[in-house]
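agent> fetching stored inputs for the coenzyme A docking request
agent> found them:
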Amino acid sequence: MINIIKYSQEEKNNNQLIDEIVNFLFINLENFGDPIQYIRNALNYAFGRTNSNSGFVAVAYNDNNIMVGAAVVLYTNMKGVFPENLFAYLAVDKNHRHQGIGSKLMQYVLDNTNGSLSLQVDPKNTARQLYEKFGFEVKYLEMRLYRM
Ligand SMILES: CC(C)(COP(=O)(O)OP(=O)(O)OC[C@H]1O[C@@H](n2cnc3c(N)ncnc32)[C@H](O)[C@@H]1OP(=O)(O)O)[C@@H](O)C(=O)NCCC(=O)NCCS
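agent> prediction call returned; pasting tokens
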């Protein structure tokens, strides 16, 4: 059985938990991942470690209480031009995929957020099918100007 636990600001000083989630995401995002510091920045934001930003992390544990999936949501404090929630990361342990854990996490995120969500997905990533199954659609082409 899969048990999903929601962590947020109350755990902001739990360095061991936050390190575990950062490492889990870094390993399991694989080809579609980010530098570890980007992941840590998102976690710092979700746990309210940086000023008043916040969000939450939903972690899926198996029967042996091993972390097998994680989803990170950041609250934008916006509505309209930017949706209320940024779905920053979703990953399931390599050895536990195709068992519905990603879908469970997605449903959990939808049940535990208010308002709209946006996310980024590589066009080649099969995760896109999961997102479409839950009603996500391509609305805009994202453009970035990178600056130091
Ligand atoms: C994407 C990911 C989270 C899905 O987790 P999962 O537990 O395997 O997902 P589920 O078992 O709930 O599958 C959900 C749906 O996703 C799709 N899907 C997931 N992996 C797939 C794959 N390798 N090939 C095709 N479809 C896939 C299917 O549509 C599936 O629906 P179905 O079971 O009704 O066919 C997981 O593959 C993962 O961690 N990938 C690496 C990290 C990543 O790419 N994250 C997303 C970044 S945007």
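agent> quick read of the result: The chain has one domain: 3-133.
agent> awaiting further instructions
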